[in-house]
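Lab notebook: predicted structure, single chain.

Context: the supervisor wants predicted structures on file for every construct in the current expression panel, including those that have not yet been purified. This is the next one on the list. No modifications to the sequence; it matches the entry in the shared construct table.
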Amino acid sequence: MTLNVLILCTHNSARSVLSEGMLNHWAQLLGKDVRAFSAGSAPSGRINPRALEALQAAGMDTEGYRSKSWDEFTGDSAPQMHIVITVCDSAAAEQCPYWPGSPVKVHWGYPDPSNAPETGKAAAFELTRQAIGYRMLQLLALPLADLGQAELQAALTRISSN
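Prediction complete. Output recorded below exactly as produced.
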């Protein structure tokens, strides 16, 4: 059974997109049956081009990436989510989306690289991609099929401190 992970942010234009790309990339390379999706509570309708550039520079095909509303994942035909990760940054006074229901939930906040000075934006996006990629590797290193919800919750919370 595929483990579905929904990564939420406010605008679904940068951090959540980087997270979706990195988790799917690592899962494919490592042969893990994990599928990431990203969405926003107030999607911007576009993906930040620098997020796509950072993913492409890491060797990922970003064809078909788009900014999505979390509404796409609430209907009867939507895949069941097993893990929901929020990646917004409360220090930036962003309202993190809340996902109802019983999936395992964790917050892995990252500063918005879009807020970096223009001269440092590319580096900010790359550093954010790397930080997100590291946590996604940690997630994929877990014995996901063997963990109950409480154990998975504890493991993901531990990862949030790394």
